[in-house]
Automatic annotation (TrEMBL):
InterPro entries: Ap4A_phos1/2 (IPR009163), Ap4A_phos1/2-like (IPR043171), Ap4A_phos1/2_N (IPR045759), ATP_adenylylTrfase_C (IPR019200), HIT-like_sf (IPR036265). Residues 3-160 form the Ap4A phosphorylase 1/2 N-terminal domain. Residues 178-274 form the ATP adenylyltransferase C-terminal domain. One of its GO terms (biological process) is nucleotide metabolic process. Coiled coil: none annotated. PANTHER family: AP-4-A PHOSPHORYLASE II, PUTATIVE (AFU_ORTHOLOGUE AFUA_5G14690)-RELATED. The keyword Nucleotidyltransferase applies. Keywords: Nucleotidyltransferase, Transferase. GO terms for molecular function: ATP binding; ATP:ADP adenylyltransferase activity. It comes from the Bacteria. Pfam families: Ap4A_phos_N, ATP_transf. The active site is at H141. This is ATP adenylyltransferase (5',5'''-P-1,P-4-tetraphosphate phosphorylase II).
């Protein structure tokens, strides 16, 4: 049983950060759109936050990071922060203290920081490798949505587990899905990451200075998923890793009628690389 100390600490920091005005939670509501199951479709009710707007270069919010959002220092080189624009309570970020590019390779020290948090608190982890895969900031950060033991990490988790049982790929885009072998220790993360990168022709850290294509990562205690991307937007929807977990967000630019006609699976197909 995990101690969930990080999660509890995140709740305490959340209350203080909210009082100080350091948090800007997204105000959303679930839309009961027919034919979307098992996807969860939310509509953004508040104004579109900065990280969802298109625009030019922006200041790095992590150098320095906003101290009221700090949950814990992860030795030797990372910080656990609250997301300033959380999609749920205790939406967490693991960031590098010094500059590391989001579009670069995830390094051994990053996986060690993830494992340090993962031993204490479980949930849905995700990573957007750059702007074309939905990253809102260029400074390296992995994200965690904490979950209770036994709680599904995301709407599509049952389908991922079903695929692992059958061994048959279900979708026409370029992705790799593997079973986790060390969910508490995290010793499997780097190997899965590199194996998926090779299979999806993202490149090799020993040969390529950075990944050759944009991608998303998603993982929980049971599975590890990598999706190769070609674009970030489709039909006015900004799609990051959470789209491939089964979460979609309707903003002022989203074409809801298109989504109702074509469905979420076609949206994902349109922003992912085709399966070779």
């Amino acid at each position: 049983m995990r101690a969930e100390r990080c999660w509890q600490r995140a709740r305490e920091v959340t209350e203080r950060a909210r009082r100080q005005g350091a948090l800007v939670p997204l105000d959303t509501c679930i839309l009961p759109v027919p034919g979307m199951e098992p996807f969860v479709v939310r509509e953004l009710l508040s104004s579109t936050p900065r990280h969802l707007r298109q625009g030019g270069p922006r200041p790095n919010p992590f150098l320095p990071w906003d101290r009221p959002l700090q949950v814990e220092l992860l030795e030797p080189a990372h910080v656990l922060l609250l997301n300033k624009y959380p999609v749920q309570e205790a939406h967490l970020l693991v960031i590098t203290r010094d500059w590391r590019p989001q579009a670069g390779w995830i390094e051994a020290s990053d996986w060690q920081a993830v494992a340090q948090v993962g031993r204490d608190t479980g949930g849905l982890w995700f990573f957007n490798s750059g702007a074309r895969s939905g990253a809102s900031q260029p400074h390296r950060h992995l994200q965690l949505l904490p979950r209770r033991p036994g709680e599904p990490s995301c709407p599509l988790a049952p389908l991922f587990l079903e695929q692992l049982e059958t061994g048959k790929p279900a979708w026409s885009w370029a992705y790799r899905l593997s079973r986790r072998s060390d969910p508490l220790g995290g010793s499997d993360l780097a190997d899965l990451y590199h194996a998926h990168a090779r299979d999806l022709e993202l490149g090799d850290p020993g040969r390529d200075s950075e990944p050759l294509h944009p991608y998303n990562l998603l993982f929980d205690d049971d599975w590890f998923l990598t999706v190769r991307r070609v674009r970030e937007h489709g039909a006015g929807f900004s799609v990051n890793a959470l789209g491939f977990a089964g979460f979609l967000l309707i903003t002022e630019g989203s074409d809801r009628s298109w989504l109702e006609r074509h469905g979420p699976w076609v949206l994902l197909k349109n922003v992912a690389a085709p399966r070779s």
